[in-house]
Amino acid sequence: MQSAEGSENGILEQIKRLKELQSVSSELHEMEETLRKYPEELSVLNGEIKSVQEILAEKTLQTEDADKSKSLLEKDLSEKQLYIGKAEERLLNIKTHREYEALQKELTEAKRRCIEIEEEILELMGKLETLGAETGELEQSLKEKTEQNAPRIEEIEKVIGKLETEAAPCRERRDSIAGGLSPEVHSVYAKISGKTHIFLAEARSEMCMNCNMNIPPQMFNEVLTGAKIIQCPNCNRILHCENA
After folding, report:
1. Residue 208 and residue 238: Cα distance in Å, rounded?
2. Distance set, CA 241 to CA 188, 192, 208, 228, 231 (Å)
């Protein structure tokens, strides 16, 4: 418990200022609590949209890769088919058995590879079809999630903007009122307000109305007379009497 000495009128004036300060601090505390709560909700809402966007981006990348691989295989297939056509023409004009056998071997290998490429292309076409369906579902999901979350996001952003606009002058007012406290009272206020935004408590019927603990009779009388700044021995709040 701490007390600050002063004239009765001076202490009562300080208590009056503390009450005003308490009112502004409570208003500011409510704003700051709301400002802390909304970003969490915003993060959840934006996170839901971002999650779908990231999956969609991954599917789009997979589609681009599959498309690129398919194009390369189709080009390879076309070149091999062209080679086979020319080789078959050359086959008709070969004179020696050795050359004929060598070219036949190349043709067989080229045709085998063509079959493999066609199978790979078919596999990629199946993959692209699946990716197309998944992408379509994700785009629809993204549209629905965006339409669902966008109004709330816009609403929260407006509230945050409004509260930040209102909080700035409220902080200035709080600091201005606190600046008018006497050094001794300001020291007590600063210690308590560093831990809680409720630094003032009404004393009534020898009880602290903040923590409901009894206040010693002599201490309660000192609160009534307003000769000192008295703090509750239990919760440490600055005590005041409404009718003092």
Report:
1. 10
2. 18, 19, 10, 12, 12
Region for 205 from its dihedrals, namely left if φ exceeds 0, alpha if ψ lies in -120 to 50, beta otherwise: left
**The two three-digit tokens of residue 131, written as one number:** 């990716």
Output the tens digit of pLDDT for each of the chain's 244 residues: 444 454 555 888 899 999 999 999 999 999 998 888 898 899 999 999 999 999 999 999 999 999 999 999 999 999 999 999 999 999 888 889 999 999 999 999 999 999 999 999 999 999 999 999 999 999 999 999 999 999 999 999 999 999 999 999 999 999 999 999 999 999 999 999 999 999 999 999 999 999 999 999 999 999 988 888 999 999 999 999 986 5
Query: How many Å from the N-terminal Cα to the C-terminal Cα in the chain?
Result: 21
d(CA 147, CA 155): 13
CA dihedral for 181, 182, 183, 184, sign (positive or negative) = negative
Considering the entire predicted model, what is its pTM?
0.63
Question: If you search the block for the tokens 């004239």, which residue do you land on?
Answer: 7
User: What's the rounded Cα separation, in Å, for the pair 43 and 132?
Assistant: 30
Looking only at the bridges linking them, the beta strands covering 238-240 and 200-204 are parallel
